[in-house]
Amino acid sequence: MADQKKKVSPTVPFSLRIPTDVNDQLTYYADQFNMTKTDLLLMGASHYIKWRQKDYDLPTAEIARLNQLVESQKLMVSSFEQLSQAVTSGFDTMLGLHRGSNYLADDESGSLDE
């Protein structure tokens, strides 16, 4: 099974006129990637079609940025919860100071002797 070759679609001739500078770039990158110019054009066209259809894997940089944004949201939620608790605690303290001592609010020991 490892010897199976990738099924190749039938090909048709196709003529293309491109500017000289684009041809130079195509030649350069085909050499860099050790490919033919035809293979590079086919791969580029396939990549562009998948990109337009939003059918692609996220690159590592995009995944890292997304994880960074999610982590930032989690930190903001945690910070908000802590701030909310601090404000509530502060208002409880201020209300306690404002009321002052009150015989009705004194703690009871629970025994009937007093």
Structure notes:
The structure is a single chain. Helices cover 61% and strands 0% of the residues. With 114 residues, it is mostly helical. The chain has two domains: 19-56; 57-99. The chain starts with 19 loop residues before the first helix and ends in a 15-residue tail after the last helix. The model has no long low-confidence stretch (mean pLDDT 84).
Strands, helices and their partners?
Elements: H1 20-32, H2 37-52, H3 60-99
Give a short summary of the structure.
The protein is an all-alpha fold and 114 residues long. It has helices spanning 20-32, 37-52, 60-99.
What would the keywords be for this entry?
2 domains, rod-shaped, 114 residues, 3 helices, mainly alpha
3D shape: rod-shaped
Give the N-terminus to C-terminus distance in angstroms: 93 Å
Rg calculated over all Cα atoms: 35 Å
- Average pLDDT reading: 84
Task: Identify low-pLDDT runs.
Answer: none
The domain tally reads 2
Percent of residues in helices comes to 55-70%
Largest sheet: none
Structural class by secondary-structure content: mainly alpha
Taken in chain order, the helices and strands follow as HHH
The strand count comes to 0
Strand content: under 5%
Per DSSP, the total helix count is 3
